Backbone:
């Protein structure tokens, strides 16, 4: 069953046997000129095969987390969700009032942050009187989580009442006019992850099987963001964000290819969250902090330390912008 792509040489051939629904594995079949066959696992498909047997299993898995969170927030209904990228975790501590902190490790059936600088908390509170749920630490595909876990917080936000999602990140600058510390309003994205967070049984309670992505980053929110940035004197560039899996940084050849594709910045997050939010009917605003020039554009080796250093240098300016965006986005 499945696609049969044969590569032959010196009397030996290989055939990709395809996804085996019973096991969730992709098999590679090896055979020689004597017609001896052997099938072995090439890699395990990221979808849990149990989901195929019981599509409701994933919903129940998420519901336990929702029930626990609701037991801690005393009827609090957030209208805005905020995903804090590298260097912005302090926003929840310094800029939010009347906070309730729920560590990820306390939430049933919920992943844990493994990246340095990501605290791993949901923080509920108020910004200028508006109810906000904030992620102090996100999840990345490169941490080894399946996409269903990477985007679980966004689906939980939607279930809790969030209507607007602000997603932030640290990114490498492909646009040659960008400098370290540039803030870029995301106008669109390119999904170079090789997968999609909506693969698998559709969550019908959240959205349609085939959601439109024509305006993935809401035009009205982008217009308001530009106006707010202008009012407080913050330069806000615009551009297209491209997501790769990571965790290795990109090669100069890859950056040249991404530049040709029309990308202005590159990172390892945001796109799964944006797709999931759009599927659930949330309006999305995305902002990147350009923490370094991408490989080949800068002669310097890339490092996480450089990313953190630049993010920390502009964190107050970035936080000032976020603090003003939340009330602006909640004005109908």
Residues:
């Amino acid at each position: 069953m499945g696609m049969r792509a044969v590569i032959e040489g010196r009397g030996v051939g290989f055939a990709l046997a395809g996804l085996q629904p019973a096991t969730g594995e992709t098999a590679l079949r090896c055979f020689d000129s004597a017609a001896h066959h052997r099938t072995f696992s090439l890699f395990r498909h990221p979808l849990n095969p149990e989901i195929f047997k019981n599509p409701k299993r994933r919903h129940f898995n998420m519901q336990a987390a929702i029930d626990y969170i609701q037991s801690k927030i005393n009827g609090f209904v957030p209208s805005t969700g905020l995903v804090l990228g590298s260097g912005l975790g302090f926003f929840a501590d310094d800029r939010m009032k009347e906070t309730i902190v729920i560590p990820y490790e306390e939430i049933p059936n919920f992943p844990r942050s493994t990246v340095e600088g990501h605290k791993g908390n949901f923080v509920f509170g108020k910004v200028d009187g508006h109810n906000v749920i904030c992620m102090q630490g996100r999840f990345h595909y490169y941490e080894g989580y399946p996409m269903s876990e990477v985007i679980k917080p966004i689906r939980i936000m939607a279930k809790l009442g969030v209507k607007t999602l602000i997603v932030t990140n640290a990114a490498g600058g492909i646009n040659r006019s960008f400098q370290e510390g540039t803030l870029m309003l995301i106008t669109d994205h390119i999904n170079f992850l090789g997968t999609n967070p909506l693969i698998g049984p559709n969550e019908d309670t959240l959205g349609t099987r085939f959601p439109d992505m024509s305006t993935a980053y809401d035009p009205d929110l982008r217009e308001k963001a530009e106006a707010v940035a202008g009012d407080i004197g913050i330069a806000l560039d615009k551009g297209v964000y491209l997501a790769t899996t990571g965790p290795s940084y990109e090669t100069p050849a890859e950056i040249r290819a991404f530049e040709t594709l029309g990308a202005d910045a590159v990172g390892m997050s945001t796109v799964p969250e944006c797709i999931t939010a759009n599927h659930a009917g949330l309006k999305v605003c995305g902002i990147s902090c350009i923490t370094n020039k991408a490989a080949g554009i800068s002669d310097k080796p890339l490092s996480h330390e450089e990313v953190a250093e630049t993010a920390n240098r502009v964190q107050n300016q970035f936080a000032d912008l976020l603090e003003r965006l939340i009330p602006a986005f909640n004005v109908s």
Observations:
- Residues 8 and 108 are 49 Å apart (CA to CA).
- Residues 1-57 have pLDDT under 50 and may be disordered.
